[in-house]
């Protein structure tokens, strides 16, 4: 999809366009525009002004346009349309918080209700970015607090959010309804408590894979008394105990609650009580899935009965410290499940079998490789509706045992023909299995294979993995996201450049031989938006080959490659609308300047408002 | 075997035995050539022999919240210090005895703990390391044998001397 790249580029175009003050566009492709021309010719003095009538009509029509791609196109038609579109846009998506300033946002859009904001690039998740790099929510919350009193929804990913930010949010938006924080950090339970307490219309509070400091605040008790409008509450990433009685009380007075994801401090007994209180739940995060105490004989709660009573459950996750002897309790809901997340549970094939056998409707399945190839075969045999599969490593090291392999991958490809998205960690792989998947699963849009041993070739033939990935890009014509691994030569990248015409996100690690590889990709993949590369032999020449592209991309990340300061500077000087950041991995405060010629990390991105003013000392903006 | 652009293609060498059976190669991928300005002491010099089986930063790309949960051999406890704005976490299993633990705490929070004696506790610095055990009782760090401590410690709190309750 090209929404975001269109958005920024089109905004640029609009700025230039408006400066030149052209007349209304005379494009004949849209009948509404033709109408504008026609009404233009009336230019009589009769009130109401035809332009205003048109704008009112346009406003009514634009209410129905929700896709950002369409809205971006609309905003380019003429000044009048730009204005009306800005007035009627209620949701905005900002893929890189540094691509524009908060002031630009509030200047253009006057009535936003919903903001999605993303900060750090993905490689920051893997300690490749020093702490305190940026992506602070603070300037955004300050600006939007003034501009959008009716803001209802904030969705942040990889942003640095403080308790003060959350407090300001809670104070500024009386109608606030939804807060979702994905992979965020910088705040604690005290910030959450303020949101819970002051946002009286809160429907959604979802904390997903975020780091939440334990300030030892009983935030659950901070939800106000009386009936709660809560529909979704997710706190499975919160690594601190909660007041269970308060949680139970909250659940009891939340008749609209559909999604509840508890953390590992909620025991099986407690989960049982919650389920009894909320049989209407559709999505349940089961917490620890482990009992508090040793079984007390006849006092044992009937867990299976609780699951039986929750007829609406279609999504299960949690199992953070699960006890295998209780796993079968979930059986009553298996046939209805569309999503099952076992990725925190060390489940063997033997444990998986009786469960997965009944999961005919599963569309999303996440698990650890503890289920082994055997488990994957069981999935392939039953889960014909599978759309998304993620297999994570139980032991995430390069030299650990490899319980899943090409055997499992091939089995999945043969059994789950509707597969659209796969993330697969393994120790070794074969081109044959990857090719089989490319042929059996034509609907694939996301293919992410992580062969954990660096530079590992096909373990049967000893050849590079070029052919396998080549088959993926060639046969999966809908592919938009690709992550490669294993031993790869420049040839693999020539395939990607030749066939990967819809690829928007590409992840590369420890691959390729030369700058040619980078050039193939930058010259060949017209839809490429996000390029993240580490530890590959790409240098200045490769970087230079993408000069014509960087304005149209969200970002490029290159770390531990062979870039020089001079080469990066060339890009910075040639592209004034692109911010070029250079920094090291350890974020040493003593380094005000980059010394030496070697560039450890390059992070570049387009920006409408020039380089950011909040860069820490260890970041050099060229 | 050929080495292209400094890239080590040793893995594709034909040999008997399973791939990866030899020791894994260096921390730094050999494609890195220019001046490295790195503070880490482990590796960076191309000429230095690579340490065996070293873990590379951020590889494999698994988020830390997943890594911690699956590794049953960690024992994370929270550490707070009176007056410090942030809580920290440490893995008790990384230390074998009290001196190691105390040194780590001193480094983490930039303070020094006083001299410990069984009778009088910590003297001389104003900072007193305490911990909460499985029964919820607050104890002075060092009062029980290390093994008993490391298996029962739930959280640590470094109190400022004047606030340490006399009961400890």
Automatic annotation (TrEMBL), chain A:
The keyword Nucleus is assigned to this record: yes
Keywords of this entry: Auxin signaling pathway, Nucleus, Ubl conjugation pathway
Domain COI1 F-box span(s) in chain numbering: 51-89
GO CC annotation terms, alphabetical: nucleus; SCF ubiquitin ligase complex
Main location: nucleus
Location in or out of the cell: Nucleus
CDD domains: F-box_AtTIR1-like (cd22159)
Domain Transport inhibitor response span(s) in chain numbering: 111-156
Pathway: Protein modification; protein ubiquitination
GO biological process, any: auxin-activated signaling pathway
Pfam families found in the cross-reference section: F-box_5, Transp_inhibit
Protein name, per record: Leucine-rich repeat cysteine-containing subtype
Automatic annotation (TrEMBL), chain B:
Record region (Disordered): 1-74
Protein name: Auxin-responsive protein
Domain PB1: 74-161
This protein's GO CC annotations: nucleus
Function of the molecule: Aux/IAA proteins are short-lived transcriptional factors that function as repressors of early auxin response genes at low auxin concentrations.
Localization of this protein: Nucleus
Record family assignment: Belongs to the Aux/IAA family.
Bias kind Polar residues: ranges: 23-34
Subunit note: Homodimers and heterodimers.
GO biological process, one term: regulation of DNA-templated transcription
Pfam families in alphabetical order: AUX_IAA
């Amino acid at each position: 999809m090209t929404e975001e790249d269109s958005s920024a580029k089109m905004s640029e175009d609009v700025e230039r366009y408006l400066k030149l003050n052209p007349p209304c566009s005379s494009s004949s492709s849209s009948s509404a525009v033709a109408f504008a021309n026609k009404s233009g010719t009336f230019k009589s003095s009769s009130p109401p002004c035809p332009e205003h009538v048109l704008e009112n009509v346009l406003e009514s029509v634009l209410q129905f346009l929700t896709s950002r791609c369409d809205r971006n196109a609309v905003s380019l038609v003429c000044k009048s349309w730009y204005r009306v579109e800005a007035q009627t846009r209620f949701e905005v998506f900002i893929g890189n918080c540094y691509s524009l300033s908060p002031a630009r946002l509030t200047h253009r859009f006057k009535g936003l209700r919903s903001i999605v904001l993303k900060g750090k690039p993905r490689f920051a998740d893997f300690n490749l970015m020093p702490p305190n790099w940026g992506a602070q929510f603070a300037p955004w919350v300050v600006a939007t607090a003034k501009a959008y009193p009716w803001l209802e929804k904030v969705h942040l990913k990889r942003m640095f959010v403080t308790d003060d930010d959350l407090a300001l949010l809670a104070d500024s938006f009386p109608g606030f309804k939804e807060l979702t924080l994905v992979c965020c950090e910088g705040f604690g339970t005290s910030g959450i408590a303020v949101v819970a307490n002051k946002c009286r219309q809160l429907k959604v509070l979802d904390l997903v894979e975020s780091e939440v400091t334990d300030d030892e605040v009983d935030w659950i008790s901070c939800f106000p008394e009386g009936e709660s409008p809560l529909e979704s509450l997710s706190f499975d990433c919160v690594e601190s105990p909660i007041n269970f009685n308060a949680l139970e009380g909250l659940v009891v007075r939340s008749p609209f609650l559909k999604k509840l994801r508890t953390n590992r401090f909620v025991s099986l007994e407690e989960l049982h009580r919650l389920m009894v209180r909320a049989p209407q739940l559709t999505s349940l995060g089961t917490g620890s899935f482990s009992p508090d105490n040793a079984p007390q004989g006849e006092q044992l709660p009937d867990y299976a009965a609780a699951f039986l009573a929750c007829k609406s459950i279609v999504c299960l996750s949690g199992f953070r410290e699960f006890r295998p002897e209780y796993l079968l309790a979930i059986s009553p809901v298996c046939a209805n499940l569309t999503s099952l997340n076992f990725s925190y549970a060390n489940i063997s094939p033997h444990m998986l079998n009786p469960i997965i056998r009944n999961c005919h409707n599963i569309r999303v399945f996440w698990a650890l490789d503890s289920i082994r190839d055997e488990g994957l075969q069981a999935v392939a045999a039953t889960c014909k509706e599978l759309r998304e599969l993620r297999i994570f490593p139980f032991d995430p090291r390069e030299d650990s045992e490899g319980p899943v392999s090409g055997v499992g991958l091939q089995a999945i490809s043969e059994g789950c023909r509707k597969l659209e998205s796969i993330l697969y960690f393994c120790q070794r792989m074969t081109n044959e299995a990857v090719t089989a998947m490319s042929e059996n699963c034509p609907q694939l849009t996301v293919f992410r294979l992580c062969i954990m041993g660096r530079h590992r070739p096909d373990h049967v033939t000893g050849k590079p993995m070029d052919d396998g990935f080549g088959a993926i890009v060639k046969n999966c014509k809908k592919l938009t996201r690709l992550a490669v691994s294993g031993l790869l030569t420049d040839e693999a990248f020539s395939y990607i450049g030749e066939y990967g015409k819809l690829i928007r996100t590409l992840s590369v690690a420890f691959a390729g031989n030369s700058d040619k590889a980078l050039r193939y990709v930058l010259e060949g993949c017209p839809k490429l938006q996000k390029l993240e590369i580490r530890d590959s032999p790409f240098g200045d020449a490769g970087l230079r080959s993408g000069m014509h592209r960087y304005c149209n991309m969200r970002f490029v990340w290159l770390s531990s490659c062979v870039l020089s300061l001079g080469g990066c500077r060339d890009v910075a000087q040639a592209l004034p609308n692109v911010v070029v950041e250079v920094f090291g991995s350890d974020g040493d405060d003593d380094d005000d300047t980059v010394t030496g010629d070697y560039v450890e990390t390059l992070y570049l991105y387009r920006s409408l408002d020039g380089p950011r003013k909040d860069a820490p000392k260890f970041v050099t903006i060229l | 075997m050929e080495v292209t652009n400094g890239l080590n293609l040793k893995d594709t060498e034909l040999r008997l035995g399973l791939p990866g059976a030899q020791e894994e190669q260096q921390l730094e991928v050999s494609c890195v050539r220019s001046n490295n300005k790195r503070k880490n002491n482990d590796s960076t010099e191309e000429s230095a022999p690579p340490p065996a089986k070293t873990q590379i930063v951020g590889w494999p790309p698994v988020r830390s919240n997943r890594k911690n949960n699956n590794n049953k051999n960690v024992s994370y406890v929270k550490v707070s210090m009176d007056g410090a704005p942030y809580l920290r976490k440490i893995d008790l299993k990384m230390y074998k005895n009290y001196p190691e633990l105390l040194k780590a705490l001193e480094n983490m929070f930039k303070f020094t703990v006083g001299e410990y004696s069984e009778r009088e506790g910590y003297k001389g610095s104003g900072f007193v390391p305490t911990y909460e055990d499985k029964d919820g009782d607050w104890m002075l760090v060092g009062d029980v044998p290390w093994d008993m401590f490391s298996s029962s410690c739930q959280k640590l709190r470094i109190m400022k001397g004047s606030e340490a309750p006399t009961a400890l």
